[in-house]
Amino acid sequence: MALASTVAAHPLAHYRSEFPIFERQVYLNSCSLGALSTRSRASIEEFLAQWDARGAAAWYDVWWESLSRLRDGYARAIGARPGEIALHASVSTASAVLAGALDYTARPKIVTTELDFPTVAYQWLAKRSSGVEVEVVESPDGVTVPVEALTRAIDERTALVATSHVFYTTGAIQDIGAVAEAAHAKGALCFVDAYQSVGQLPLDVHETGVDFLCAGGLKWLLGGPGIVFLYVRDDLTQRFTPTVTGWFAHARQFDFDSRAIAWHDDARRFEQGTPSLAAVYAQLGGLDLIHEIGVPRIRDVTRALTEDLIARALEAGLAPKVASAPDDRTAIVMIPSGDPAAAVARLARERVVADARPGHVRLSPYFYNLTDDNVQAIEILSA
Predict the structure, then answer these.
(1) Which CATH number is 330's domain given?
(2) Beta-sheet pairing, 109-113 with 158-164
(3) Same domain, yes or no, for 280 and 302?
(4) Same domain, 313 and 362
(5) What is the pTM of this model?
(6) Are 231 and 241 in contact (CB under 8 A)?
(7) Could you give the CA distance from residue 74 to residue 136 in angstroms, rounded to a whole number?
């Protein structure tokens, strides 16, 4: 039976009005950049008004407090404590601080996978001249990596397992609790890139047992570029001394002491320099939406939209590359294409925003999408 061209709007459909981009086009590219909300715009304008009215004087009360609010908001999103959150500009800077804090003398090996975003591996590939070894575990099906394969790669020489909660290449969910358990069984630590999961998947970092985790505003947290966080498990914060750092890692930074560092006793010791306040305020607006709705509700709606999109793609003969079971899938749907750039351009001409990846068009619905968006995208791709 053919799928209906449209169905009743879902329970979160009224939030679509808070994203003006839908007045002009269909947006199916949250996997690259979350749509701008009216709340994030208003939050940025609040920052600009403070800058205009007060200049640097705003640092000492409202702007400093905004950093604390952001750490609180990020912690709430992943079930952590605010003291376990360090703010960063990107996953690259956060992982650089982490990579610089590890001791590779007895454990020179890092384990990662071929499906992880390359940033995850780059920090350690850059240290190969210092004796660091990087083992990249291959995927047997190009969709996911069995935990058993990672487990075989982890040994007593492994310092860290660095991998993803959701693979950006396929949207497949990885059991990071099992990965952390496998790492800990050999005395290794676990670092998770959760950029593609936090916001669209419920997560409690304490339940998973992971040691370090990164995510940020660019995608599902609706905060835009320039702001991320590094979660550091509470009991690990004082075990490591960073060698890549900045003045925000100093517990008494306004002493301006150039002779010694008095490290923070919480995750802030992993911070670097002054955060971008425009990005901070954009993210506060995005988190306001995420927390108001609740990630479990977002997951329910987004999952239904994703399954609808996959079903329509299958019906059209497009053979989406996704995990085999719905429970293992997220809102990242890879549609095979002989010329992804041309297909994305064809979508754009019809005012549908998607993205190209090697051999695929990537579609990524979110709670502000409707099934009609799926209908339009699949009709264009299958024409």
Answers:
(1) 3.90.1150.10
(2) parallel
(3) no
(4) yes
(5) 0.95
(6) no
(7) 30
